[in-house]
Design goal:
By secondary structure, the chain is of the alpha/beta class. The protein is built from 13 helices and 11 strands. The strands form 3 sheets. The chain has a 4-stranded mixed sheet, with helices on one face. Strand 3 (179-182) and strand 4 form a beta hairpin. The relative contact order is 0.15.
Length: 330
């Protein structure tokens, strides 16, 4: 089963790379990952950590988010912004919209009995949004900088592909295992049983990398102003494990102390000005050998200040939010 996305020349011209994280969509995908019973070592440390801290008050949100299936659009908006602002907007969802979306979902899969009251009783929506807020505080908020760093690194990878081969190169390399570009059709193998055609009709497509969408793409066909495709962010072979900052694995004072020194500061500044730069480009920018640039990049990566992904034989370095904060405060 697959989704076939049909492009015109206008669609290729209007296809874009998302400029930031879509937090509630990312949360929805993370909740699906946590519910998925398929044996996998992916995110094992994260699973163990969040399950030990997840309160019962998050149950309503999980009951509305199956591991495979449909989630109502109001509960996973394809919007950028701060999570608290997006949750506040969700609390103001019109009753008619709630009823329409829940009827749409209920016709396709089982839903919780209490969900049928969403369009009638405002207190049910308030409790659901509070539950989703709790899930966000446990599943996503503590790991925000690492999630944003991975997504920024993927964006650098796609920009490089765009510069070297145009949008068709980007589409070809999105996720070869599940996404195939054969002009003018992008075929996406979904985790669901969806078998359909989507004609963009001049709107183009917004490509958004997802940290937790490590195995399968996700399509939001009704997003405005154009449909969105959430594709797995490239993890690379040197990406750090997902751990809470308070565990001391990244960004600890002992590690950050290693950053003292003129050359390493120059390397950090060079990465800040060249998202997705290679080690060779880094060495040329700073005026040091490739091996020295690689050593400095390793220290910066261990400190959580940059992230590194692999593209063919090259290592691509990108600044993390923690690295940007350090530069802004020094």
């Amino acid at each position: 089963m697959a989704l076939r996305i049909h492009f015109t020349f206008a669609d290729l011209a209007r296809t874009r790379l998302a400029s930031s994280v879509h937090p509630l969509q990312e949360l929805s995908i993370a909740m699906r990952v946590l519910r998925d019973r398929t044996p996998s070592t992916r995110f094992d440390a994260w699973r163990h950590d969040v399950l030990s801290r997840l309160p019962a008050t998050a149950r309503m949100a999980f009951e509305m988010t199956p591991s495979h299936g449909w989630v109502p659009d109001f509960l996973a908006p394809a919007a950028e912004g701060e999570p608290r602002e997006l949750l506040d907007r969700m609390r103001a969802t019109p009753r008619r919209l709630l009823r329409d979306q829940m009827e749409h979902i209920a016709a396709r899969q089982p839903v919780p009995r209490w969900s049928r009251l969403l369009g009638e009783d405002p207190s049910v929506l308030r409790r659901l949004v509070d539950s989703l807020s709790t899930a966000h505080d446990v599943l996503l908020a503590p790991y925000r900088s690492q999630v944003e760093a991975r997504i920024e690194a993927d964006r650098g990878l796609r920009v490089r592909a765009l510069l070297h081969g145009g949008m068709e190169e980007v589409l070809t390399r999105l996720h070869p295992r599940r996404i195939r570009w054969e002009s003018p059709v992008l075929t996406v193998n979904m985790a669901s049983d969806l078998d359909a055609d989507l004609k963009l009709e001049g709107r183009g497509l917004l490509l958004a990398p997802s940290f937790f969408g490590s195995d399968a793409p996700l399509i939001v066909p009704d997003a405005e102003p154009q449909p969105m495709l959430f594709h797995p962010a490239s993890s690379g072979s040197r990406s750090p494990d997902l751990v809470r900052p308070d565990t001391g694995a990244a960004g600890s004072p002992a590690t950050l102390a290693q950053l003292l020194g003129r050359t390493r500061a120059a390397v950090l500044l060079a990465v800040a000005g060249r998202a997705g730069c290679t080690t060779t480009e880094l060495s040329a920018a700073v005026g040091i050998s490739v091996s020295s640039a690689s050593e400095h990049a390793t220290v910066l990566r261990r400190a959580g200040l940059i992230t590194t992904t692999r593209h063919r034989k090259a290592a691509l370095h990108t600044m993390t939010p923690t690295g940007r904060t350090l530069l802004d405060t020094t």
